[in-house]
Amino acid sequence: MTRRIVVIGGGVIGTSVAWHLAVAGAGEITLLERDRLGAGTTWHSAGNITWLAYNDRQILATLDAVKAVSEESGQDVGWLKTGRLVLARDQATLESFAGSARLGEERGYGSQILTADEAAKHHPLLDPSAIAGAWLNGLSGRLDPAGLTAAYAGAARKRGVTIREACAVTGITTNNDNVTGVETSEGTAPADTVVVCGGLWSRRVLACCGVALPQWGCEHFYVIARVDPALDRTTPSFVSADYLVYGREEVGGMLLGCFDVDALTLDGDNGAPSDDFSFSLLEENWDKFAPYAEGAATLFPALADAPISRFVNGPETFTPDGQPLIGRTGNIEGLYVASAMNSGGVTYSGYSGQLISDLVTEAEPRFDPGRYAPTRFGAKAGDEAWLRETIAQTPSSNYRKLHD
Prior knowledge:
alpha+beta, FAD/NAD(P)-binding domain, 2 domains, eight-stranded mixed β-sheet, globular
């Protein structure tokens, strides 16, 4: 009997999962999206992909998937390899990058440690007096998240996946702890396997099954500044763990974002906005963002007087340890999740699809399935107060992973 698989969510993760399942010949696959593909958080993603030593295989898996779906679908994903400057305010921080830089160099990724003056030659707005040096991470770049989502979806359709937009999921049906179907605004869709890729809304979707998913939504910011001189599109992106900021070129300007301390968690049901929050943003929050903008202006003085053309407060989903939730969840047979990418959905998209397809088809996993197991927090996943308190510190703690 052909396995009937329903994937819930049409963002970059859900479309990747659907395509990977189709590649694996997992069964009859249907993807359900309550609005349009890319709604939710994918559409406002910064689209960065940065190689990190501790995530080497995961990131390479995504880069392989990006290349494959682009060719298979004929969809341009806008991939641009720029490299990334990992900035160090002091010598101790710079030395902490040495191991990753050396590994990147050994693998031929164009990785090297730069002096402050050398780093400034790669970025015309960088003040070399503000840093001790930088690690130039060569295997880094950015792409168009909407284009990548369209590529995954297009390639999935070519392999027989049915994609239904404007089809809201209202529940998951079970019988004797086995998945039997998905209730939708258009009726019940029978299913033997359900993969919840609902991003901000995954916890709410799974609550109907008695599953408490250990994730929560937070406000998450970036701005677009009109800098002078304008940046060339090949200018390396940057990240500073000292100031908790990152950025890249955006149509000649600078996209500047932060991973803030004491992030603002969402008050909505199960940590998510209302169901009609699709291609939407939260209100601008300059009071929260201003200290990070000031820190960034220390590194890039042109930012101090640069006009801001756009403020994007796009909520993202985080976990207590800053790692995604990928794998089987709860005690219900046939129920899986790929969610809470901690603002790294594009980066984790290919990896998520590979791991879910391996688990669903019971193939030998290409990655350790325990690393991102959704059940790893046990009963604490149901403690809303603990989740919110802990996850408020997750965005800033993510930057510690830049060091060895």
